[in-house]
Structure formats: structure tokens, C-alpha cells
Design a protein that fits this description.
Length: 135
């Protein structure tokens, strides 16, 4: 399987919400994602929902780009291609994978550059309803 087959005609949605990536004392049931390992708990949550009392460190100002496509487990190199393409433009990413799709968080100020680059790979990039209305 070639990752390019999934980019061509694929849709990427940019979230209306702006997220914070938080190193926290505990998870949050309202978070988009909670990642726990033996060393830390990381919470990805909408900025307005950050529990600052439980936060150890916070990185503010991230938009979620969701690849609106089912990505099979056998697919190799999809996120590598995304991260590499965005790295070529100087765009840092925070990558997350769900069971059947991937998400990358990019800084709010990098959304335009990221969208243009993903479009050059063949994706259609759409802004979620409410994008840019202060969420």
C-alpha cells in the first residue's frame, strides 16, 4: 500500500477548536486524548477546558488536523509522509493515531502553511464549521 493513494482525494479537516497539550497530574474525561505512560500523563484538550490546577506544563495554541479517511493497519509510512512534508515547511507536529485514522496538531499560526502542503500531496483541506470564530 502506498500512502499517496490515501492522500489523493482524501479530506483533512481543521478543527474549529484550539487545543492545549498539557502535562498533567491526571487525565481529564473531557479531553480529546489522554496519553499515559510510566513517566507522565499528557492531555490534549480544548483550551477553555484546561484544568490549570492539575497542569504541570501547558503548550497553548494547537489546531487539530484530522485525516477523514480509514487508514488500514497495514499502511506503512502515512504519518512519516505527513510529518516529513510538514517538516520540509518548518511546521512542527504533535501526532496522534486513533484506531482507524490519524490526527496531527499544528500550531495555530502554521495552519495555512500546513493546509497548502497537504493540498500539494493531493488532500482537500476543509475548515470545520466555526473555524476562526474565536473558539
Amino acid at each position: 500500500m502506498d500512502p499517496s493513494d490515501f492522500f489523493e482525494g482524501g479530506t483533512v479537516t481543521v478543527s474549529a477548536a484550539t487545543y492545549a497539550v498539557v502535562t498533567a497530574e491526571r487525565g481529564d474525561p473531557d479531553a480529546f486524548a489522554t496519553i499515559r505512560d510510566e513517566n507522565e500523563t499528557t492531555v490534549v484538550i480544548e483550551e477553555g477546558q484546561v484544568d490549570e490546577a492539575a497542569a504541570i506544563d501547558v503548550e497553548w495554541g494547537w489546531k487539530r488536523l484530522t485525516f477523514e479517511m480509514v487508514l488500514p493497519f497495514e499502511l506503512v509510512g502515512f504519518l512519516a509522509r505527513v510529518a516529513g512534508a510538514l517538516a520540509d515547511e518548518g511546521v512542527p507536529v504533535f501526532a496522534l493515531s486513533a484506531y482507524s485514522t490519524d490526527h496531527v496538531l499544528v500550531r495555530e499560526g502554521d495552519v495555512g502553511v500546513a493546509a497548502t502542503k497537504l493540498e500539494s500531496l493531493g488532500c482537500s483541506v476543509e475548515r470545520a464549521e466555526g473555524f476562526g470564530d474565536g473558539n
